[in-house]
Design brief:
Chain B: Keywords: Cell membrane, Membrane, Transmembrane, Transmembrane helix, Transport. Chain B: One of its GO terms (biological process) is transmembrane transport. The complex is a heterodimer of chains A (266) and B (277). Chain A has a domain of 108 residues. Chain A contains eight helices and eleven strands. In chain A, β5 and β6 form a beta hairpin. Chain B is mainly alpha-helical. Chain B starts with 20 loop residues before the first helix and ends in an 11-residue tail after the last helix. Classes of the chains: A alpha/beta (266), B mainly alpha (277). At the A-B interface, β7, α2 and α4 of A face α7 and α8 of B. The structure holds adenosine-5'-diphosphate and magnesium ion. Adenosine-5'-diphosphate binds next to β3 and α1 of chain A.
């Protein structure tokens, strides 16, 4: 079998240690149970996708990991330490970008460093480097409303990268950009995962996107919300970005995920 | 999001994308302001010449009266009087109004405690309250300052509070995710995000404060500009009366322009529009 498919029992991830783990997370919004007894492990240096239909609790789980929401019960550990709130070890990329409209690209990208008390010239040097890295050199003085959706999300990405957190939490970062831009983003994300030694937790509702970018895919199902399976695509990544979408294993996994999800989609 | 910039994502930037549009905007708005003033004064002159009423002087007559008032010093002594309750009242209203507004916007308890007071204050017929104020605080400066505050403060408080309450949740969440403290969130997210609406409230409040200052002088004791208005009307010197009214409107307009300028300096980026969608 070309991929290892694991039922959501406790799994030892082969050959890597765990950067983030969630243990028995339950989350109620009033009487709505968004997550039930969810346990999941995120291997260091890899990209794990949370994939599932909308409303199944992906954002909720990501915000709990980010320390922006408190779980009703259960706990999150990052590098063996229990999460009690936002921390310097995690950086967030938001679905709606969450840029400050009154601040230039430079100030937006440097915002995280500013909050960490990094001096102005130092943080602008760092920010400038990441602005360049995401391909926005020359737009430092532009304001968010002057940028396209794709460019805005690059600003959000540069902001997350510039604080140099070990864990990147990305909530459907590409869902609001057009298809062409999204493909470019996905390719860039692959090289980012390779080059930066960071742990990526990536929320998406797109099956193709998840299979394309992930080292590990956790499929979440709603009502009650739970991890239904964990899939680790194994060997098509080495064949180069241009070949992934034609790879038989890629296509198989996409099909397989669709057949397990289809019954949950009205 | 629907719109995609004409530049390629990773391509070369089009120079400074910010420049251009903005630099001509101020001069154009100045031209428009002068033009609309000219049309207004022209209409006034024509209406005065017809005349629409024997009590309605022409623009030129009124301006002549204004220069007379300025030349013999009457105007300046009048303003020395009128500006006292106005400046004190508007300053108190702005500072206290914004402070209370922030508080009310941030805390449900203070919202519950204060909002009704200001809603009532805004709705109350001021003319009916003035006798009560005079009864309680006499006919001095205190009563006049209070009239200015009653006129100016509610809209400042209510605007500030609603602007604070409407700060986009996602921006606050972003700031928390990047380790901002509550105080930084207030200073760097909530206040800048709320500033356009706060300034709109200030503009409305200060305009109302001007009305309050004149109203106080007409209803409590005729002093300052209110005295010029009352006295010149009693002797049917309508050009002087209109000159006094015109001068207070002019002062209000100049002051509001100053406020606009302060806003532009303090919150530069805010005029650059919001990221919609
Ligand atoms: N602030 C909230 N208050 C009440 N219910 C919420 C709130 N946020 C999310 N929910 C509910 O929790 C469930 C999971 O939401 P969410 O985590 O946003 O899902 P996803 O990101 O997978 O679309 C949904 O049913 C949603 O209606
Ligand atoms: Mg979501």
């Amino acid at each position: 079998m070309a991929m290892s498919q694991i039922k959501p029992a406790l799994v030892a991830v082969p050959g890597s240690d765990i950067a983030v783990s969630t243990r028995n997370i339950t989350k109620f919004y009033g009487y709505v149970e968004a997550l039930r007894d969810l346990s999941l492990e995120f291997p260091r240096g890899q990209l794990t996708s949370l994939l599932g239909p909308s409303g199944c609790g992906k954002t909720t789980l990501l915000k709990i990991i980010g320390g922006l929401l408190e779980p009703t019960s259960g706990e999150v550990e990052v590098n063996g330490q229990t999460v009690t709130g936002p921390g310097p070890d995690r950086a967030f990329v938001f679905q709606d970008f969450a840029l400050l409209p009154w601040a230039s690209v430079m100030r937006n990208v440097a915002f995280g460093l500013e909050m960490r008390g990094v001096g102005r010239s130092e943080r602008e040097d760092i920010a400038a480097r990441y602005i360049k890295e995401v391909g926005l050199a020359g737009f430092e003085k532009a304001y968010p409303h002057q940028l396209s959706g794709g460019m805005r999300q690059r600003v959000g990405l540069a902001r997350a990268l510039s604080v140099d957190a070990q864990v990147l939490l990305m909530d459907e970062p590409f869902s609001a950009v057009d298809e062409q831009t999204r493909r470019k983003f996905q390719e860039d994300l692959l090289s980012l995962v390779q080059n930066e030694n960071k742990t990526f937790i990536f929320v998406t509702h797109s099956i193709e996107e998840a299979v394309y970018v992930s080292d590990q895919i956790a499929i979440l199902l709603p009502r009650p919300s739970r991890v239904s399976e964990i899939i680790r695509p194994s060997n098509f990544r080495e064949k180069g970005v241009d070949n992934i979408r034609r790879d038989p294993e890629y296509l198989d996994i996409v099909d397989q995920i669709w057949s397990s999800l289809r019954s949950y989609v009205e | 999001m629907r719109q995609v910039a004409p530049v390629s994502i990773a391509g070369a930037p089009p120079g400074a994308p910010t420049a251009g549009k903005r630099s001509i905007a101020p001069s154009r708005s100045l031209v428009l302001k002068i033009l609309s003033a000219a049309i207004l004064f022209g209409a006034w002159e024509i209406a005065g010449r017809i005349p629409v009423s024997y009590a309605f002087p022409t623009f030129v007559e009124s301006m002549a009266a204004l220069f007379r008032l300025a030349a013999d010093g009457t105007l300046w002594t009048a303003y020395a009087e009128t500006l006292q309750p106005l400046v004190v009242g508007v300053t108190i209203s702005a500072l206290l109004g914004i402070a209370i507004g922030l508080w009310v916007g941030l805390s449900e308890f203070f919202d519950w405690l204060f909002s009704p007071i200001f809603i009532v204050m805004q709705a109350a017929p001021l003319a009916a309250l003035i006798p009560l104020l005079v009864l309680a605080y006499g006919i001095g400066l205190t009563s006049k300052v209070l009239v200015v505050c009653i006129m100016a403060m509610p809209v400042i408080v209510l605007n500030t509070a609603s602007a604070v309450r409407n700060t986009p949740e996602s921006m606050k969440e972003m700031a928390r995710a990047y380790l901002a403290t509550d105080l930084t969130i207030l200073l760097k997210i909530i206040i800048p995000a709320a500033s356009p609406v706060i300034f709109a409230g200030l503009r409305l409040g200060i305009s109302a404060g001007f009305i309050g200052a004149i109203l106080a002088e007409l209803k409590i004791t005729p002093t300052g500009v209110g005295d010029i208005i009352t006295f010149s009307r009693s002797i049917a010197d309508y050009p002087t009366m209109y000159a006094a009214i015109f001068s207070i409107i002019l002062l209000a307009v100049l002051f509001l322009n100053l406020l606009e300028w302060i806003e532009a300096v303090l919150f530069k980026g805010n005029q650059r529009g919001y990221v919609s969608d």
